[in-house]
Design goal:
Blueprint: H1 14-33, H2 37-58, H3 62-80, H4 86-89, H5 113-130, H6 142-167
Length: about 190
């Protein structure tokens, strides 16, 4: 008597096969989009504009927008934070350089740019889909939510900027650093 499952070929359902094919194709195009930073962010900006127009058009879903804003602020903090928190790492002795004589260590983000972009894009897609679910349209006075979010954003960014100043790191760099060599003075004889 033969055991079922020992040498029998596994049967893949058409739905599982379609899901697998879709996942591979999606990952392929996601990988191809990696070097195109500007185009990715412009696409996300267009998606955000579509979301804002949808919320403006239906004049609702302010709770969804508030939740989306809190989530994006959380992602921004992860994007601006170093991978290893200097406050916790001081105990081990390895930390960001605080003096000019310290060894240079490049800034490594807790949340890389690609994952930051991908999470924001997914958030806007999910938020857009949520605007079609009428149960989520809770009536609120939106100016109060906006003021609360602005205060929360200012306080959070103040704390993050103070952390950046205290440990002397800058999470943004534009372009590649280039070595210019020694500057030679021009002597006039």
């Amino acid at each position: 008597m033969e055991e079922a499952g020992s040498d029998a070929p596994s049967v893949v359902t058409p739905l599982a096969q379609w899901r697998n094919d879709f996942s591979r194709a999606f990952q392929y195009y996601l990988d191809r989009s990696t070097p195109h930073t500007l185009e990715r962010w412009l696409g996300t900006l267009a998606l955000a504009a579509i979301y804002v127009l949808r919320v403006y058009y239906v004049r609702g879903f302010y709770i969804v927008s508030y939740g989306l804003g809190i989530y994006i602020m959380n992602l921004l903090i992860g994007f601006m934070s170093p991978q290893v928190d200097p406050e916790l790492e001081i105990l081990d002795g390895a930390s960001l350089p605080t003096k000019d004589s310290d060894e240079f260590k490049p800034f490594v983000r807790r949340l890389p740019e690609f994952k930051f972009w991908y999470a924001i894009t997914k958030a806007f897609c999910i938020g857009f889909l949520m605007t079609f679910i009428s149960v989520l349209d809770v009536p609120v006075f939106w100016p109060i939510l906006l003021c609360y979010w602005v205060v929360l954003f200012i306080l959070t960014m103040k704390r993050q900027i103070m952390h950046m100043i205290k440990y002397k790191y800058v999470p943004f760099s534009i372009g590649k650093r280039r070595y210019s060599g020694k500057k030679q003075g021009i002597s006039r004889d």
